[in-house]
Design a protein that fits this description.
Elements: H1 5-21, H2 49-52, H3 60-65, H4 82-87, H5 93-102, H6 114-118, E1 137-143, E2 156-161, H7 167-175, E3 192-197, E4 201-205, H8 216-232, E5 236-244, H9 251-262, E6 267-272, H10 279-292, E7 304-305, H11 314-324, H12 330-333
Parallel strand pairs: 2-4, 2-5, 5-6, 6-7
Antiparallel strand pairs: 1-3, 3-4
Cofactor: Mg(2+)
Keywords: GTP-binding, Hydrolase, Magnesium, Metal-binding, Nucleotide-binding
GO molecular function, one term: GTP binding
Length: 340
């Protein structure tokens, strides 16, 4: 039988429709044996269900969000990602009030934080702390070896942290100066720099640990130098461990904290660049860091939060330092801030 062109077209369409409706038809040529989809071909609604329902690659977030049928459709804590667990942290009201008082903004006017906002007392008037200022900061010694440490005359406060966390900028903000060199390049501080704060005390800027544009031998020399200073310096009152508020404590930070704890040196965590975090995220980050340092005996539980860019929290840190070295009376330090 000879078919004309119209008959051939009708027969082709009939075969095509019957193939689509049948589940016994083999897969199209752009599918492999495992039914993985070609990146160049989209699945249309006319594709057989056997291929539309084939397994596809999904992201980890999709797997985390799936509920467990054995638990009646509820998602367990183990199934949540770290980001989801972080968002579930509920900071207390007093932490929000503290951050607002230090100048880190206010809660956004959204339904999510409306319950926290309603808890605040409207007629509560807080008396701000007086402004504290440090005397003129001056560089007087640099040490690349333990033999070049200056004599122990004044009490000292050390500053240490991973490279590029804003340690040098923090020193400048505390002293209202630009004497401490800053750079975006990690590893600028390559020795122990001693700065006198008038005749009150000394601040010691240590090299950053972690990543830097130096070889491993140089980093080991810095580490040995810092460990010698921390372990043998009798005038060292406290070590401020500076971290980036956006990242919290890293493995390098934890490793350094273990060394400080082993040498029985009092240390306190200082979070910088806090202006780059919204208030709820900053409050949660503080709670995470406080939980991370619970196991260290020589850790000061209170975490300091500052912003060298806006100046928020800097005055409070100056107050802490003056009290630490004995230049602020106890009654002034523990004054009631909630006095009307």
């Amino acid at each position: 039988m000879i078919l004309n062109n119209s008959s051939r077209s009708a027969l082709f369409l009939l075969k095509r429709s019957s193939c689509i409706q049948s589940t016994k038809c083999g897969p199209p040529t752009y599918f492999n044996s495992t039914f993985s989809r070609s990146p160049f071909v989209s699945l249309s609604t006319k594709t057989p269900s056997a291929y539309r329902d084939s397994p596809r690659r999904v992201s980890s977030d999709t797997l985390i969000n799936k509920t467990d049928n054995s638990n009646h459709g509820t998602t367990t804590t183990e199934q949540l990602s770290n980001r989801q667990k972080f968002k579930q942290i509920d900071p207390p009201l007093r932490l929000y009030e503290k951050l607002e008082r230090l100048g880190f903004g206010t809660l956004r006017r959204t339904k999510r934080y409306q319950s926290v906002r309603q808890q605040k007392t409207k007629d509560k008037h807080l008396i701000p702390d007086p402004e504290y200022k440090l005397p003129l900061l001056s560089f007087f010694a640099g040490a690349k070896t333990p033999t070049s440490f200056p004599s122990e005359s004044l009490e000292e406060i050390g500053f240490v942290g991973r490279s590029n966390v804003g340690k040098s900028s923090l020193l400048n903000s505390l002293a209202s100066t630009t004497i401490v060199r800053t750079s975006d390049k990690p590893g600028l501080t390559q020795q122990l720099n001693f700065y006198s704060v008038g005749r009150l005390f000394s601040m010691v800027d240590m090299p950053g640990y972690g990543f830097a544009f130096v070889d491993d031998d140089q980093r080991k020399q810095w580490r040995d130098l810092m460990e010698t200073y921390i372990g043998e310096r009798k005038t060292l009152k406290r070590v401020y461990v500076v971290i980036d508020a956006r990242h919290g404590l890293k493995l390098a930070d934890i490793d350094f904290l273990k060394m400080l704890d082993m040498k029985r040196v009092k240390f306190q965590v200082v979070m910088t660049k806090c202006d780059l975090q919204v208030l709820p995220t900053l409050a949660r980050r503080i709670m995470v860091v406080q939980d991370d340092i619970k196991g260290f005996r020589n850790a000061v539980k209170d975490v300091l939060v500052v912003s060298s860019k806006t100046g928020a929290g800097v005055n409070q840190m100056r107050k802490e330092m003056l009290f630490l070295v004995g230049h602020l009376k106890e009654k002034d330090f523990y004054q009631d801030k909630n006095k009307k």
